[in-house]
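User: Quick sanity check before I run a bigger batch. Here is a single chain. Can you write out its predicted 3D structure?
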Amino acid sequence: MDFKMHEYTHALVGKLSSVLEHRAGGDVDYDDARRQHECFLRLLRELNVEVLEVNLEGSFEDIILLEDVAVICHGIALLPKPTPKFIETNLKVLCDILRRDLGQTIIEHSDPDANICGSDVLFTGREFFVGISDTTNEAGAAVVAEAFPEFPCTPIKVARGAHHLKKYITVAGPDILCVGASKEAKELLKRMEREANFSYQTLSVPEDEAANCLYVNGTLIHRAIEEIPEAFKVFCEKIDFARRSICFSELSKLQAGLSSCCLLVRKP
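Assistant: Done. Predicted structure follows.
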C-alpha cells in the first residue's frame, strides 16, 4: 500500500458560525452539535491537518455533511452532478477552493444516467469499492472507475433499504477494514471479500455506529466510550497504533458519521 494515500494536508469543512437553526421540535441539541463539530476540527488540527472552514449556504445539515459532494483521491476531485441535495453555489465554492488553493484536478462528469454519492465510495488505499444503492448506481460506479483508472474499482450491491456503504464499513488502518455487526454489514463484507483485488484484515465491532471511522495521518479516529462501549473495548484490544476518540452523539442524529463532516485532501 502507498501509505501516503491516508496522509492528508487539508480538510474542507462547512463554517457553522453564521448558521442559525430555526427548526422546531426534533431531538437534536444544535448547541451540542456545534461543540462536537468544533472538537472534531480541533482533533484534525492536532493531527497536522490544516482545516479550511468554508462559508456555505443552507441548513445545518447542508453545511456540515460534505462527504457526498466529492470523491477525492490522488490529486483528483470527482464531483457528482448537482442534485437538489446540493446547493449549486456551494458546489462552485468548494470546486474553486479544490482547484485554486489545493491543486486538485476537477472532474465534473456529464453522464446524465450516473448517480454518485460520496458516502457509497470507499477507497482502501489500494482500490475502490462503490456501494450500489438508492443513491449510487452502476453508471456512477463506472464514472468513479474512469476518474481513477490506476485503481481497481468494484461495484458492491447494498441491500435494499440499507444505508450507505460507509455506514457499515470504513478503513481503520493500513489494510484494515472496520465492519459493523449487523446482517447488512456482514453481507457487504462477504461481497467485498469475494470481489476484492487485495486482502484485508477485518476489525469487527459490535455496534454498527462504531463502524464509521476515519484513518488520518497514521491515527484512527473513532467514537467515544460513552457512545460505543463494546466497540471501544475492541479498539483498545486490537489496534496497536495511535487512536483518538471523540463524542459524536448529536451529530449522528443528523445522519452524520465521522467520515461525513469533512473533505480530506492531500495537496500536491
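The first strand starts at residue 10 and ends at 14.

User: Great, the batch can go ahead then.
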